[in-house]
Structures are given as structure tokens and as C-alpha cells.
Specification:
With about 350 residues, the chain is α/β, with parallel strands linked by helices. Helices cover about 35% and strands about 15% of the residues. The protein contains 13 helices and twelve strands.
Length: about 350
């Protein structure tokens, strides 16, 4: 719905809204960050939020998110208030904030820039890859070659905040969710857990449940407990994968916070390019990730605890600003990744268990 509104209302409105006046030099006591979109962007915004809170510890930080990614912000220390675009009363509350500073973290679409301007903020900061740049006091360049965590830190440069080394953990799991995860995982006893996420928002990013099932079975033979996570749309494939390894499928049975709690108890996550992948990174969990359509330079995890498998076909990556075209080659970039490669990469991250 928001993308449709952006193409219509956003593109139209941005041409009629005046450019902002000189920024007000107020003390920054109320800050609003706009973050529409999915789970992955929200997770990778966390280090910038933490940096912002460190710079302005007395400031109140409000997030304007969506229902689909709002749960992430319960995992980020420093967020004081959460509002949602797609809840009318909360959206109107955001427009009435009149914050000292608004940072629009949307990378391309125009509607969020219009909303930022409508809040009456003293200072507006946002990415400026197109005509949306005219609505900000500070329009920040956006590059597809920067890791997304670094891109979000670029938005803080007008405030004198530079990038900092990525913390091993930048998400925090609520106590209640930890307890619920312990209950759900009790059937797997004390075996080290390998967690699998077979889902994806589009078919082009799916490796396939049959391959995940083979990986699960191979891990089970080595004594690992297998747990499959995902949304309701992943329930059928999750059940098939878990059955192949006498494991446990929790796909469609957990909240986002409970999913994070399950990840925090895992020895490893195997996943495609997904928001769940970034959750594991934020919790300090080793990952093996499967890339093809997505831009690995921007979205792949960094550091020795993470292995990225990417065949680097001539047509890959094909995603830009969140849009992936329909693949004419039946997802060859992911199909070429073998079960043996995934298993070998996974075991390389778990030498102390093998």
C-alpha cells in the first residue's frame, strides 16, 4: 500500500511542498526517525540509533515504522517511543510531534520525505537519490556499494557523529521472549542448535525447501538439533524440513522477539538474504548466508563469524532499491549453490562442536 501511495501521492506531493527554511538551532531534545520497510533495514539501523542515543543521551527518540517491522524496535536499546505509519492514530501523532530533528532513513521512496517535512521539524536529514532531496536541510548521498549499517551512519554525519566499529551484539532480547524460547526448544534437549530460515519475500531469493531439508538431515546425523523458523507462509516447507531431520519447525508459531530469542540460543543460522539473517548478526550468532539477487556489498554480514556463498553470475545482483525483477533463468544464481558447499561452510564456523 505504501509503495502505491508513494508512486501516486508521494510523487505528486513532493513537487508542491516548499523547500525547508533555514534549520532551527534548537537543542536536540526530541528526535524522530522514520523507518518504513522490512525487518532487515530496521535491524541494520540499530547501530546508528545507539550512536545517536550516545551523542544525545537526554533526547527522546521516537521511531515511525510500519506494522511489519515495528517489532524490531523492541530489540533496540535507546528507542523511547514507537509509532506506526499504518495505524492512523499513531501516524497523526507523529505529524503532531514537531520534533527538533527528523531523520528519514528511507533510501529512495518519496512519501517518507513528505512526511518528514510535514512534521515541522527544526532540522530534516535524509537520503537524496532523487527529487526527495529538496525536502531536507541535509540531503545525504546514497551508495549501493556501502554496507547498509554504514549508509545509516552517513545520515548522522551532519550531527557530528561518525561511524563506529560494529558491536558484536547490537540487539537485546526481552526476558519474556527468552523464557518462551526455552519452552519451545525444550524438546531438542541440550543438543547444539542449527537454525534454518528457508523463507524469502520473493521466489527469486528462495534456495528451496528440498535443499534445506538435505542440509538439516546432514546436521542431524552429526548430533545437532534442528529448528526451522519463519512466518506462517513458511509453515508447510518448515514442517517438511524439520521432518527430514527429526527436528522442530516453529515457522508461523513465534513473534519476532521470540524468533530473536531462538536465534540467540543457536550455534548457527543458515539463511538466504533476509531480515532474519540480520537479526542473527545483531545477536552475535554465526551465519551462513546465500546470496544471488541481492547486493552482497550492501547487505551481506561482515566479520569472521559469517560466511557468504555467492556464485557471482554475470546477471547478479539484480536487485536495486528493494526491487528484484522476475528471473528469466529460474533463479540460477541460488540454484548453483550446492548442499555440500553450505554444509562445509557451516561446519567451518563450528570447529569446537565437531
Amino acid at each position: 500500500m505504501l509503495k502505491f501511495l508513494d508512486r501516486t501521492v508521494g510523487r505528486f506531493a513532493i513537487t508542491f511542498i516548499s523547500c525547508p527554511a533555514t534549520p532551527r538551532a534548537n537543542q536536540l531534545a526530541t528526535l524522530l526517525l522514520i523507518r518504513p520497510g522490512g525487518i532487515g533495514d530496521a535491524v541494520l539501523l540499530a547501530p546508528a540509533i545507539i550512536g545517536l542515543k550516545k551523542k544525545f543521551p537526554e533526547a527522546t527518540i521516537t521511531i515511525l515504522a510500519e506494522k511489519r517491522n515495528a517489532g524490531v524496535f523492541a530489540l533496540i536499546l535507546g528507542v523511547d517511543r514507537l509509532l506506526r505509519y499504518d495505524v492512523p492514530g499513531e501516524f497523526l501523532a507523529a505529524l503532531r510531534l514537531h520534533p527538533d530533528l527528523v531523520i528519514d532513513t528511507e533510501q529512495y521512496h518519496r512519501l517518507s520525505a513528505v512526511v518528514a517535512r510535514m512534521t515541522g521539524a527544526g532540522t530534516c536529514i535524509g537520503f537524496g537519490p532523487n527529487e526527495r532531496a529538496r525536502l531536507f536541510h541535509h540531503a545525504v548521498p546514497y551508495s549501493h556499494d556501502d554496507y547498509e549499517v554504514e549508509s545509516f551512519f552517513h545520515l548522522l554525519e551532519p550531527l557530528g557523529i561518525g561511524p563506529s566499529p560494529l558491536a558484536p551484539l547490537f540487539l537485546s532480547v526481552p526476558t519474556q521472549a527468552q523464557g518462551r524460547a526455552a519452552e519451545l526448544l525444550s524438546a531438542l534437549e541440550d543438543r547444539p542448535l542449527v537454525t534454518l530460515f528457508p523463507g524469502a519475500s520473493i521466489p527469486e531469493r528462495r534456495w528451496g525447501s528440498e535443499r534445506f531439508a538435505q542440509v538439516a538431515a546432514r546436521f542431524a546425523q552429526r548430533g545437532f538439533g534442528i529448528v526451522v523458523i519463519g512466518g506462517r507462509e513458511d509453515a508447510e516447507s518448515g514442517a517438511a524440513i524439520a521432518q527430514a531431520a527429526s527436528g522442530l519447525s516453529l515457522a508461523g508459531r513465534t513473534t519476532l522477539a521470540e524468533t530473536a530469542a531462538i536465534l540467540s540460543r543457536s550455534a548457527l543460522l543458515v539463511s538466504g538474504d533476509s531480515g532474519v539473517l540480520h537479526l542473527a548478526v545483531g545477536l552475535g550468532i554465526p551465519t551462513v548466508s546465500l546470496f544471488g539477487p541481492g547486493i552482497a556489498a550492501k547487505w551481506a554480514p561482515r566479520g569472521p563469524k559469517h560466511i557468504i556463498i555467492n556464485k557471482h553470475l554475470p546477471c547478479s545482483p539484480c536487485t536495486k532499491f528493494g526491487y528484484t525483477p522476475k528471473c528469466p533463468r529460474n533463479g540460477e544464481c541460488l540454484a548453483r549453490i550446492s548442499v555440500e558447499e553450505v554444509l562445509a561452510a557451516s561446519l567451518a564456523l563450528l570447529p569446537e562442536i565437531n
